[in-house]
User: Fold these one by one.
Assistant:
Number 1:
Amino acid sequence: MPKPDFKKIGLLTSGGDAPGMNAAIRAIVRTAIHHSIRVVGIKRGFDGLLQGDILDLESEEVSDIVYRGGTILKTARCAEMHTPEGQEKAANICKILNLDALFVIGGNGSIAGGLSLSKLGVNVICLPGTIDLDLDCSEYTIGFDTAVNTGMEAISKLKDTSSSHQRCSIIEVMGRYKGFIALWCGIVGGAEEVVLPEEDATTNQNQVIEQILANRSKGKLHNMIVVAEGVGDAAALAQKIEKATGIATRATILGHLQRGGNPTALDRMWASTMGYEAVELYVQGGRNRVMVVKDGVCANVDIEEGLNFKRPYDEKNYRMMKILAL
Ligand code: F6P
């Protein structure tokens, strides 16, 4: 069968950076080169696309990056891509650049940007890159594991000081509107409670206070509570706990530390697999798809269907956390 005439693909990272994005870039570039496809890197996400800020990506450009956090392509949040004019302009630039496809690595907002371009005739292939794990159509998003590991290490360190002072520690972790990072950090860090946006905030906070008092009455000398940023205001919760229990309480907001650091093996593995599979999919004629993990394996779905997919909140892990914290 004659080889189709593949020419050039564009590649950008967009939205919040996530550890593992570089591993995905490397996998896309190397797999494309394997298929004799030219890769154009676009700097600073859709912002850079609108400015025509591009560079050729050869194999050397992606050497020594599999272990590095951040994104060598840089990233940005681009307000203009939320406007029809901006989307039209970006689609035209893809045409002027003669891109046969645009590969987008990013979270919900970036994938929505990709969808808008696909509706204007650009073939878009997306990879889920966000620490938040908040893309319902995928069981995994690149960066999540590293962020959870960072949270877990922070909890261990906080436990040292919190147990020395017999205090209560509140740690606020990222996750935007979802509580995945918080719940996982709570389980793997051995927290007593987690406060999630998926649960009723007031009930949840009252339960936290009851749990702290119950554990103290059993002889526990320090406490560890994880709060998702989607619930917010760890400092206010710390004050509420201190007032209600009389226990000295300190709040720590982990913030952007969770977005940095060398990606874990799991993040590098999924990023490499999704990058490789994304190019293979494109070579086989895939159009307007988002790479996902489904039933534990790499798969892909239509971008619009993927964005509309709603996964019900899985209370199982929350129940497990409660039991393990008893
Ligand atoms: O989506 C990743 C994320 O780190 C969220 O967890 C957080 O809410 C947001 O980005 C922070 O965004 P920014 O870096 O633009 O402040």
Number 2:
Amino acid sequence: MNKANQNDLQPQPGDVLLIVDVQNDFLPGGSLAVPRGDEVVPVLNRYLNIFVANNLPVYATRDWHPERHCSFKAQGGPWPPHCVQGTRGAEFAAALQLPPSAVIVSKAATVEQDAYSGFHVTDLDERLRAANIRRLFIGGLATDYCVLSTVRDALRLGYRVLLLGDAIRAVDIQPGDGLRAEQEMLGLGAQRITVEEVAA
Ligand code: VGL
Ligand code: ZN
């Protein structure tokens, strides 16, 4: 890779780190565990260190459901109860080193409304625009649901997306769902990166 391209991967003003749904219920032992979901945490901590050291903003989305949310099986939805507001399962992974300045974006927070994308019925786009953000470094859980939806919306809204290929994991209800999601995101214009390229 040439030097110009490499420099381009260094986080700079206009960039944010957007961490998607790294919550206990999506980790091993949680009610909607993503296989090897815990593996994203130490890698995200490395991205976090880089962003914090450079005084760059960090955003974190969270699935934030009321009890009896429409996406739960008892209500006819596809999922076991997960990320219920105020429960331990809805908390961010304890080992995730979010800075105090991190902006928390809650989604799917009413019974009748589900949202995989961090942009869906939130003020995320408004806030990013107000802060002159043009480029999003996106990682977290799960590749084939909330990461995919968030990346689709980000690209549609005109942001550049750097997909943290080493800091995402998939539910993979059908084998290959995660890989297909990744292919779709790259096809739509996201660029896959790893922390070594950013730290270089
Ligand atoms: C998610 C399933 C249900 C996610 C959220 O964060 O990817 N997946 N709710
Ligand atoms: Zn959910």
